[in-house]
Design brief:
Blueprint (H helix, E strand, L loop, with lengths): L20 E5 L8 E5 L5 E6 L9 E2 L3 H17 L1
Antiparallel strand pairs: 1-2, 2-3, 3-4
The structure holds calcium ion.
Calcium ion (CA) binds next to loops.
């Protein structure tokens, strides 16, 4: 059985995106799962988990410079695959 905690998790209703698809993994190398939201137009939104390993996730939008660095790294890694 599940309990509805929020109908606007992370205030995602304020994002002017549609068709959001989440994916989770440790993108910044600190041993906790961060979140990428892909949307229908092909862009990605990076949320950093600031909680730490083994704790309940706390996803936040990092500074623009950190977001760009992480996303550039992902694109670079995908080009090597
Ligand atoms: Ca992480």
């Amino acid at each position: 059985m599940f309990t509805l905690v929020s109908d606007d998790w992370l205030n995602l209703s304020g994002i002017t995106q549609y068709g959001l698809f989440p994916a989770f993994g440790d993108l910044d190398g600190d041993n906790d799962d961060d979140m990428l939201l892909g949307n229908a137009d092909g862009t990605l939104i990076y949320y950093q988990n600031t909680a730490g390993p083994g704790l309940v996730c706390n996803f936040v939008l990092p500074s623009p410079s950190i977001r760009v660095l992480i996303l550039e790294t992902i694109v670079r890694l995908k080009s090597l695959m």
